[in-house]
Amino acid sequence: MVIIAIQALLGTAVAVAQSSDTAAKTPQWKASSVESVKSKAMEWLKERNVEQPVRAKAEEIWAGASEQTKEEELLAHLAATFALADSNAEKLAALCSQPRASMILPDQAWLADPRTPPFVACNMRLFYARWLVQEMLFEEARQQISGLEPSDAAAPATLLFYQSVVYHKLLEKQSGLKTLDALLEGAETSPRRYVAVARLMRDDLDGLQQDSLDHIARRMDDIRRRLDLGRTGPKVRKVEDGVIESLDKLIKQIEDEQQQQQSAGGGNTLRPSGPAQDSVPMGGKGPGDVTRRDIGSESDWGNLPPKEREEALQQIGRDFPSHYRDVIEQYFKKLASEGSE
Fold first, then answer.
1. pTM of the model
2. Structural domain containing residue 318
C-alpha cells in the first residue's frame, strides 16, 4: 500500500509538472547524448596512451550503453572509465562504491588541481557529490558541486538535482529555488523522479519563512545530523546559538501577544454585567493599582515559571502542529540545564 501511495504521489507531481511546464521558458541546458559522452571518454583514454587491454575494458564498460541509458548510469560508466587510467579516479570510485567507513574522508585535492582535465574533474566531482549526499555529508557535497554548471557535466539534470538537494537540506532558500527552477525548465528531458521530487522541494522551500517554527525545527534537525556525524566545533555551535536566538524571538512574540490579551481582558473586568443590588455591599477599598509582572530582561526572559511556561506551550499547540511542542520542550530543558551548570 505504501508503494502504491508513493507511486500515486509521484504520478500526481509529474502531471502537475508537465502541465505547468508547457508554457515554461526554454531550458538553458540540454542532456548530453550517450554517444558524445562515450566519444569524449575514449578520446581521453587515447590521450593517456593506454594499452589495448585497457581500451578493451573501456569498450566492455560502454557495451550496453544507449540513448535510453539513465544519467546516473552514464556517470557511473564515466567513473569506471576514468578509473582504468587514473589512480586518483580509481581510488575515488572505490570509495564511492560502498558506505562510508570513517569520519575522516581521504583528501581529493586532485579534483581542484588545474592539471586535471575539466572533463574528468567536473564529472568526478559530481560522482563524488552524489555519494556524499547519500552519506548525509551535505557540506562536503556543496563544496564539490557548488559553481558547476550543467554544461560542465555529462549528466546535467543529475547535477542540478543534487545541487537542489544540498541547498534544500542546508536551508539555502534562494540558491535552492534558483537551481530547482533551472532543473524544471528541462522537465521534459529530465528523469521522471527528479521532476517529481523537484516540484515537492520547490513548493516546500518557497513556503519556508525565516525564523518560523518550521524553520527552527529544521535547523535543530540539522544540528542533530551534525552531532551524529561527530561534529561539535564552532560551526555547529554557531548554528545552535542561532536556533536559541530564533526561539527567544518566537517565544517572546508569543508572550507579548499574551500580555496584550491580558491587558485587553483586564480593561473589561471592571465593567459590570448588570446593575448592582442595593442591599449588597460592593467592597473595592483598594487603590486600584495593578502589580506589574516582571518578565525579565531580553537575555534571560525565557526562564519562565512553570505555569507561564505551560501557557506558552499551549499557545504554540494552538497555533502550530502538535509535534513542534517537543521542539519547545527541548528548548526549555536546555535552558534549565544551562542554568544549573
1. 0.67
2. 209-259+299-341
